[in-house]
Amino acid sequence: MDEEISRLRAAGHPLRLRMLSLLTGAELSAAEVARELDVTHANASYHLRLLESAGLLEVAGEERIRGGIAKRYRHPWTFELHLKGSEVSPADDEVFVRAMAEEMVRRRRERTSGPALTTDAEMWVDPEVWKRVRDLVRDASDLLHDNARPPRTDGTVHVSLTAAAFVMADPEGEQE
Predict the structure, then answer these.
(1) CB contact burial 66-87 (16+ within 10 A = b; e otherwise)
(2) Mind listing the pLDDT tens digit for each residue in 146-160?
(3) How would you classify the pairing of strands 28-29 and 58-65?
(4) Which of 15, 25, 60, 129 is the most exposed place for a label (fewest CB within 10 A)?
(5) Within the chain, where are the H helices?
(6) How far is C-alpha 88 from the chain's CA centre?
(7) SS3 66
(8) Predicted confidence (pLDDT) per residue in 28-48, tens digit
(9) Alpha carbons 120 and 123: distance in angstroms, whole number
């Protein structure tokens, strides 16, 4: 990775979003990630190296496997890490949002018939209400990330949460 890549652009690929989610609850090698996500080892390795070079993954350890060294990666999720770095370009932001949308479509196809929550909102609210909603969404995200477990751990369920919460520009051209 010769050129520096923004964290948001690095995460802005559906497969890399899946890898980040997977590696939040587990420390896995490229081979394990490849098996879990049903991709080639070479493809997994490429994307893992890109995520590591962007500072989104840490090497959690190394182990000898068949005469070589396999790195074990993890994603140390925090909002601060996720947002760390310089300003986000509109192009990088769009790449990330498009990847989120594509992932949401894939995940929706895998939804079970059990209870779910789907919501969409574009409306005007008091600033205090907006702050509370934003804090609740962040708390929900933190709760999920902090309690992520390795895939198929006994007693767990496979879940999805995708959220994008932001203040929109005023149609009159003013912003809060």
Answers:
(1) eeeeebbbbbebeeeebeeeee
(2) 999 999 999 999 999
(3) unpaired
(4) 129
(5) 7-11, 14-22, 30-37, 41-53, 79-83, 90-109, 127-146
(6) 16
(7) coil
(8) 999 999 999 999 999 999 999
(9) 10
